[in-house]
Design a protein that fits this description.
This protein is α+β, with helices and mostly antiparallel strands. Helices cover 27% and strands 20% of the residues. It has a single domain, classed as Ribosomal Protein S8, Chain: A, domain 1 (2-Layer Sandwich). The termini are far apart. InterPro entries: Smr_dom (IPR002625), Smr_dom_sf (IPR036063). Residues 21-96 form the Smr domain. This is Smr domain-containing protein.
């Protein structure tokens, strides 16, 4: 089933680079490439704290996100968001400042 917001899954999606990445509309296999690219784009714009919304669900997407973050250079820290920021349905990423 295709996402109505994404009429052609092969077409690139234009994302706002604002420090908030909502993964709900993405296929899990897209996350491995998307996350490093989005983080690099935020760094270029001077955004050093990012909120990644992965949802609560079964936790598989959260585990995938955390696994990727743990391997990326330039990440100072990451943690689950506080209750006011999505709780365990979102992760806060702090980037190193070069």
């Amino acid at each position: 089933m295709k996402d109505p917001e994404r009429p052609n899954d092969n077409m690139p999606v234009e994302l706002p680079i604002d420090g908030v990445l909502d993964l709900h509309t993405f296929n899990p296999r897209e996350i491995r490439d998307l996350l490093p690219d989005y983080i690099a784009a935020c760094r270029q714009k001077g955004i050093f704290e990012i909120r990644i919304i992965h949802g609560k669900g079964t936790g598989m997407l959260r585990k995938t996100v955390h696994s990727i973050l743990g391997k990326l250079p330039g990440i100072s820290s990451f943690r689950l968001a506080g209750e006011d920021g999505g709780g365990w349905g979102a992760t806060i990423v702090v980037l190193e400042r070069s």
